[in-house]
Amino acid sequence: MNDTRFYPIGTPNQPWGAAEKAEWRARQVPVRSYANDVVPKLDALRDRFDVTQYGTLDYTPHTYPLFAVRSKNWNPSLPSVLVTGGVHGYETSGVEGALQFLDTRAADYAGRANVLVVPCVSPWGYERIQRWNADAIDPNRSFVADSPAQESAALMALLAPLREGMVMHIDLHETTDSDESEFRPALAARDGKPFEPGLIPDGFYLVDDTENPQPAFQQAVNAAVEQVTHIAPADDRNEIIGSAVVAPGVIQYPLKTLGLCASITGARFTTTTEVYPDSPRATPQQCNDAQVAAVCAAIDYALAH
Known about the structure:
By secondary structure, this protein is α/β, with parallel strands linked by helices.
């Protein structure tokens, strides 16, 4: 008998219902603390930036305050730039890179740009090292009208009055070995589809917007990151994670069509970073440094163009 089960929850070829999602949620236990790891670092920024709570996640019995950090004396006459991290909570350097940028580099742009940073969009997922939220929904496919994800809806509400002035949005992510061992199998099981194994690229790459490609912008970001860590090569199909490589270390997705975070401002310059923290050629600090280098290069290019 051929056993097609590849994930411990659900029945092969049948999408999950409420019972399967409840079973999945019960398996997700906190292994680190948003209150201890992230919130104190935000509090430490209050003398230099405006730190505000823009919402609360309610996953009873757990609740999580959501924080945004912005330039003091926000000036509507200046261009505005957005940095988001932790949309997928398990992607550690997205959160830590955003916080490191705030602590070390964000002040460099005072008087030149309004800087808005949301370092941890998905604190429930951060604590559980999980891609989805507590409802087994991927926030980074949920930046759509009437979003089913609390995380996505809250961020869109924060940005609604600020969209017009945004010239750049960089969304900080990682591609990890656990994408292949846990998260893609879980996705296939949840949706009642077969799991088709893929390859995890070794290195940093960017996701440009198919509907608004900015190749010179992507190249500038990769050039800065290459000083910190290596850029992911294409596989033997000239692809990275199943998408055609359009330039070294660059693939494209239709951001708005897929409901991806990088689509939400309508900014001219947008990108999604993808760091590979499991590489034997990169340390956790290099991953954070790569995120900071990407953010600074993205802002610099946007302000110059």
